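The data layer described in this paper is built around a simple, fixed record for each protein. Because each token names a local backbone shape, the row as a whole describes the fold. We quote a single record here, exactly as it is kept in our systems:

***
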Amino acid sequence: METWEWIVVAMAAAAVLMLVLALVRIRRRRAHLKDRFGSEYDRAVSGDGTGTAETRLSAVEREHEELDLRALPSAARDRYFDEWRQAEARFVSDPRDAARAAERLVERVLEERGYPNGDVERQLALVSVDHPDVVERYRHGRSMVEGDSAERTEDLRKAMLDFRTVLEDLLRAEPTTV
């Protein structure tokens, strides 16, 4: 073979090697995001498509790393559990008020732990980094408290169950670092 043929073969081999390395990197990134975000990954992909969702989730993960998340002292956790019991006790007499109180309680815990408030979707995305299993429960609970569902006691009961699951997860968890 002539020199130029060797050069072409070497360039083709290098291109194939780069392609293989890129595919391996993409698969590792995808596996990492699936493990980290759980069902939130599937939700993002179904809504935005794989490439857009993975880019967005990677950005959320980077933003999450910059948060100053903190564990709550045991006195604060006890106080929140006491407030939860009070909200549960009010459910019999005023289900809507109890469910809204439970939602506000979860919001306060998130804020005290260091998650930003204001933009709900941004907050939920950041929470999903540490708590992918309960973010959907939080969304569901919020939807049950809003709109027509807020008039049905059964939907408010479901919201209370969702908020309790979220609250327990938030109060039990320690901040994670990557």
Remarks:
- The CA atoms of residues 84 and 102 lie 7 Å apart.
